[in-house]
Amino acid sequence: INVSSKNMYRKMTESVLRARILFFDSNPLGRIVTRFTKDIAVIDLLLTYYIVMISYGILKLIVTVITIAVMTPIILIPTLIVFVLMIYLVKLAIPAVVEAQRLDSVIRGPIHQTFTMIVQGLVSFRSMDKLGFYRSNFKKDVEKGVNVTFTYNGVSRWISQRIDYSIALLTSCI
Asked: In angstroms, how far is the first alpha carbon of the chain from the final one?
């Protein structure tokens, strides 16, 4: 995973360094920084954990299904029904999750850009007594970011709760 993280970071850096000026005119600095930090954080921190958990879950599922099929094949019918229900729930939730992630990346860009601008112009802002104006704008942007994060967490909880209900249904059938 570490090698893939380095390769991705290297390719991202090359692409940004070779980009045309129009790219920097149409994409604020905050959005570019957000893409770098978020993508690298996902690869470094989450991907390793998810690969281990998914492979463990898939192997456990295969062993369980084989055991059930050998011991009581009739239980495969409700298992198949619940599996189809889970696929339907995931397909229903994926557009909401994707939209929440898109909004998260759109909202974080202005936060990073405003923070960078404040740090770079701190002396000027203090001398002109404009720090309060930028502070209020920054707070509004952070509040939007928190709202988007809350929405993403709500969608994730919605899908996980529905999957738990379907597992409870399967357990009741068994």
From this structure: 40
